[in-house]
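Our preliminary data section would be incomplete without showing what the modeling component actually yields. Below, a chain of 142 amino acids is followed by its predicted structure, encoded as tokens that our downstream tools consume directly.
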Amino acid sequence: MPMPLEYRQASADYDAFMKDLVASSMLTSSHQAYTMLQAVLQVFRRRLTFAEAISFANVLPPVLRAIFVSDWDVDLPKSPFAERDELMKEVRAFRHDHNLSTETAIEDVTSTIRRHVDPAAFDRVMKTLSAEARGFWSMGSA
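Predicted structure:
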């Protein structure tokens, strides 16, 4: 079997994603955008079962998939979804001294990710998740 194109193109696709995220969030660097991305992904991941998280990760491009699963303590209990303001407090608390997440970090990250995934595959996974999880990902499409 030949190497999947998504792995051959992973670095270029990630670079394009980060440029898009920096531009859409109006941050000034990919370092700032990376911390925001990682915070939003971890806030979302904490609210999924292990099976849901793996299913979700499988529709992400390879580098985003790796960021989504990195530093994961699978023994932590699942957190409940909360109102947007509470989720944003959690995003901002991630690496607090180095976090310049925007006021619209969740929307910035989710809308940018949606532009860089297979829409049909993403929607198929979203249909298997809770209404709260789907709501998290529709913040950026409103």
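The longest helix spans residues 10-25. Residues 14 and 94 are 22 Å apart (CA to CA). Preliminary results of this kind motivate Aim 1 of the renewal.
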